[in-house]
Amino acid sequence: MVYLVMSIFSIVVVFLFVAIFLSNTKTSNSISLRGRILTIWHPLKKTKIHLENDLKTWSIKRIHLLWSGKVYALNLQLTTGEWRKIYFRSRSGKIKQLLGSLKEVAPNGKVIEDARLSLHAMPQLG
Question: Which of 76, 77, 104, 116 gives 84 a disulfide partner, CB atoms 3.0 to 4.6 angstroms apart?
């Protein structure tokens, strides 16, 4: 009986840890854009950003990953100083519409096409 209670308690602790971790994430790959309001969907919450009022700067980078290939990262800096990151595979669809809105609202953003952020170049351990 004691082992059952300890097992259930440890499962609840792990579940709470994962739920807290997922609720505090600042990255996403699911978005919707309605007018000038960007909604970023996280696993347990959503963030709304009014592009004209809340956005300070933005940048987009191409990242080369060893197993996943090419991925783009859109970094949004808000006026509060927080950063939001959106990852996507191609620059079409919703992202193309978002990039058009970003270029209109905040023309000081940067598009870095040849950023060679090779994440597979990790130091050797041992």
Answer: 76
Flag whether 71 is in a domain: yes
DSSP class per residue in 20-52 = HHHHT--EESEEEEETTEEEEE-SS-EEEEEHH
Strand partners, 102: none
- The sign of the dihedral angle between the CA atoms of 46, 52, 53, 58 is positive
Per the structure, the count of domains in the chain is 1
Whether 124 is in a domain gets the answer no
- Short-list 96, 55, 56, CA closest to 72: 96
Is 33 in contact with 97 (CB distance < 8 Å)?
A: yes
pLDDT at 11: 94
Residue 2 lies in a domain: no
Q: Residue 64 belongs to a domain with what CATH number?
A: 2.30.29.30
Token pair listed for 94: 């919703």
